[in-house]
Design goal:
Blueprint lengths: L8 H30 L6 H5 E6 L4 E6 L4 H6 L13 E4 L5 E4 L8 H6 L2 H14 L1
Antiparallel strand pairs: 1-2, 3-4
Helix pairs in contact: 1-5
């Protein structure tokens, strides 16, 4: 009797890595879409700057914005953020008008886009790994 064993582990590992990256891409697209729906809109600049990027080396997917004020909208400013400035301040707008402010309350859009939809991302990952 002859027994032949074929080692397909390399192909299996490659297929799993491909499926994992596809799952991360799908999770990133989904999270990006949810964040854009949750994002407060004035000019649309912040919403349009939200994107995602898959890092195949980790593997991980990152969602965020490169807008200079994205963190201030997400986390808040002044007295509305722990450790923030406790006293009010004034600033001048583009029209020359002066304003007194105590800061801005947080308007989270990134964290809830991820944290409130974990079951969705889990389903996406499971589906890709089963079908990939």
């Amino acid at each position: 009797m002859t027994i032949k064993i074929t080692d397909n582990s390399a192909e299996f590992i490659a297929a799993m890595k491909t499926a994992a990256l596809a799952a991360l891409e799908e999770c990133g697209l989904t999270a990006e879409g949810v964040a854009k729906l949750l994002c407060p809109v004035d000019t649309g600049n912040l919403r349009n700057s939200i994107t995602h990027q898959v890092n195949s080396g980790e593997p991980a997917v990152y969602i965020g914005s490169n807008s200079e004020y994205a963190a201030y909208v997400e986390l808040g400013t002044g007295k509305y953020v722990p450790g923030g400035r406790p006293t009010p301040w004034v600033y001048q707008d583009a029209h020359g008008n002066w304003h007194l402010t105590h800061g801005q309350r947080a308007q989270p859009y990134l964290k809830p886009a991820v944290a409130d939809h974990l079951s969705t991302y889990k389903s996406i990952i499971e589906g890709e790994l089963k079908n990939g």
